[in-house]
Amino acid sequence: MKRNRRWLFMFALMFALLLVLGACSDSGKKESETDSKEDSTEKEPKTEEKAEEKGSGSTEVFNFATNQDIPHIDPHGTSANTSFRVTYMLYDRLVTYDGTTTDVIPQLAEKWDISPDGLTYTFHLNKEAKFHDGTPVTAEAVQYSYTRAMDVGKSAAGQFKDVINKDSFEIVDEHTINITLERPFAPFLKTLGTVFGNIVNPKLAEHHGSDLGETYLADKEMGSGPYILESWDRGQKLVMKANEDYWGTVPTLKTVNILIVNEPSTARLMMEKGEVDLIDYSMISPDVLKQMDGNNDITVLKSPGYAIDDIAINTEKEYLKDPKVRQALAHAVNYDSIINDVLLGGAERIGGIIPKGMFGYNPNIELYDFDLEKAKALLKEAGYEKGFPLEIAISENNEVRKNIAVMMQSDFKKIGIDLQIRALAWPTFLDLVTSGQHQLALAAWTPDYPDPDYNLWYFAHSSSKGPGFNLAFYDNPEVDKLLEEGRSTVDESVREKNYQKIQEIMSADVPYIFPAQRSVEAPMKNWVKGYEINPMNTWYVPFQKMTKE
What we know:
Layout: H1 10-19, H2 25-40, H3 45-52, E1 61-66, H4 81-90, E2 95-96, E3 105-106, E4 109-114, E5 120-125, H5 139-152, H6 155-160, E6 169-173, E7 176-180, H7 188-191, H8 214-217, E8 227-233, E9 237-242, E10 255-260, H9 264-272, E11 278-279, H10 286-292, E12 298-303, E13 308-313, H11 323-331, H12 335-342, E14 347-348, H13 372-381, E15 388-395, H14 399-413, E16 417-424, H15 426-434, E17 440-445, H16 452-460, H17 477-488, H18 492-509, E18 512-518, E19 520-525, E20 528-529, E21 547-548
Parallel strand pairs: 1-10, 1-11, 15-16, 15-17
Antiparallel strand pairs: 2-3, 4-5, 5-7, 6-7, 8-9, 9-10, 12-19, 13-17, 13-18, 14-18, 20-21
């Protein structure tokens, strides 16, 4: 793992990271040069200290640190949260989410109408909206974007599958479009506020090549959002500049630097020195957060969250095909210790993928207790009394997941299971789990829209295996039927009944183990203002409305 890098390289790493900070590549270098001069010859340290208090030397420059790399930024193809954080800033959607609420609000669509039968949605677009090249955002762009998403057939396609098709669109005029659904789909409007609903400039067609422009958009953007992609040094830094011609409110933060800082300890040191304004909430372990809070002008922002830690059990792999084996594993996880000792109380037990607080949550699911004797008995019933070897995949540089995996490794050993931990860079981890090459995979999930369909469809429907994020490769016809019925009715009582039943079935089948539903704790400098954590999109950072004082 990268944590084991030799200390001899630490100072070199620190110096390299200092060089990339600032409003542009030059400003970062100047700041580092000034710092080094100050150490040896500068006679006015107070002046330099004041500059450092602003993080990057400017209230208009924002430095955000994460240890999860960005695979690519095609909004219709990526399934990585690290990419979403960027594409949400580069593109707009018909509707969006804002602040700490989970209600949709207008964005590109000023208003909309829904037919009485729930099939036809009419969107009236803001006539001032334009793409970064100055061309207007039109009804044609909406049709192009959604059609392309379906044609690309990757992450975004799952959102539209069996909901709309290429014949669903009717362009009424340049700024009005009708979208007719194949059948009623209650969450449809909510889905359009997700990253998969991003509207792309139709001029992308000029760069389609043989893959509908996926290669082109992998490291470029053609959006209308509040930020423009300035530069991207893969694995090091991605820079976004404020769109000064933005049709909405122009951001106060003129430059946002997304810094890839592999070591959590390095990110902490950079924040304490005033070189980083905000750190990815998933990067710092709870015990370190407690140490940071209130010291060195750092505040740890705490907020409820819909994020759920999950352990996907690949039901197609040897040993793991047997439900009794999966139940045994569920009894071998020490949930209380994870919540109290690893997460330091910043979480609660959860029995399924629908978080507490969301419509459809089932509070009556029987929770698996930590019982190693029961786990041994189940393994014996399954014919594996002597145990077997297993491997769990985790993303590297995540202390919490590492600690959970180490705890599982110790407890599993007590029931005869030799659990090996495989830590991978985030893009490699994604490739492994979506291609089904894993046995167990420890990750976390936050919904992009506040409806149980989102969580359950991706986690449980057989059509979502692998790239669709059914990482358990779970296939249960009854669950499929209940999910499909839940999608096709607008009767909320029927939907709630279906989703609660699905959670009961999955609790018995155990395609996943859910250690905890976590609250969110993000370390930031005291001068950061306007950062609000949405319980749904906990990794989403609203740079466009934030300031530094």
